[in-house]
User: Fold Pleckstrin from Ursus maritimus.
Amino acid sequence: MEPKRIREGYLVKRGSVFNTWKPMWVVLLEDGIEFYKKKSDNSPKGMIPLKGSTLTSPCQDFGKRMFVFKITTTKQQDHFFQAAFLEERDAWVRDIKKAIKCIEGGQKFARKSTRRSIRLPETVDLGALYLSMKDTEKGIKELNLEKDKKIFNHCFTGNCVIDWLVSNKSVRNRQEGLMIASSLLGEGYLQPAGELSKNAADGTAENPFLDNADAFYYFGHRRKNWKVRKFILREDPAYLHYYDPAGGEDPLGAIHLRGCVVTSVESNPDVRKSEEENLFEIITADEVHYFLQAATPKERTEWIKAIQVASRTGK
Assistant:
């Protein structure tokens, strides 16, 4: 019986011979990680066994390169991967850690927080609920919280989430709130912050979400830091890679375009008035939102048309 596929997607991998960073199609199995040059390839370029391996995240070995994690095998071989954004890296890290833990304990990998496993009613619109939670007036208040001499910015506690769901009449009781919060966590609308909530999300607690004043969380899909980047659009694979405009051949990250939606944006509440011209938004298939700004209206239209083609025809 073949090992079960747990997660797959494009990551940027550092080569072991020439030390160059290249996009690879990565497949996480129950017992290892396979990586392919392209999604359509039948044979992997390599395989990393997970038994006895250790995982380091975040990995700070490469200065400006963000969202990197490292896997070290029993033979002391290091493998470096870079995700396109924080939530993507954390999702890979959680699943890899859990896979390693399952191997050590002789268990089968099983998710706790999917819509099906917790029997979330199909009538619940998690996306709409997420937007209500983020409402600046009636939503959950983001705070700067401190624990073990560490400051967590733009966070809130687990019990605050359940309190809000109950008071907002989104759920009938705290147990039902726990179920909804677990699903929001599983879908990436909420992210764990701090060891307690991360360990629960990794599967070491009875429930992936904690109704606890010591468990910290923050909203997923945060994209509010504006920076100048050089972009290169590719169709195979369908990615928009972005680079440091000052130079460097290696991408800082990427936006997966297959199945995405792209539209022009006339106003954005996260942006100052002076920055509102020529904006467009990319919403990925995983419902991650990116706001980009072109230099002119004509350039914005050209980018939107090109990205729309890549989203339909790219691999």
User: Anything to note?
Assistant: Residues 126-219 form a domain with the Arc Repressor Mutant, subunit A fold (CATH 1.10.10.10).
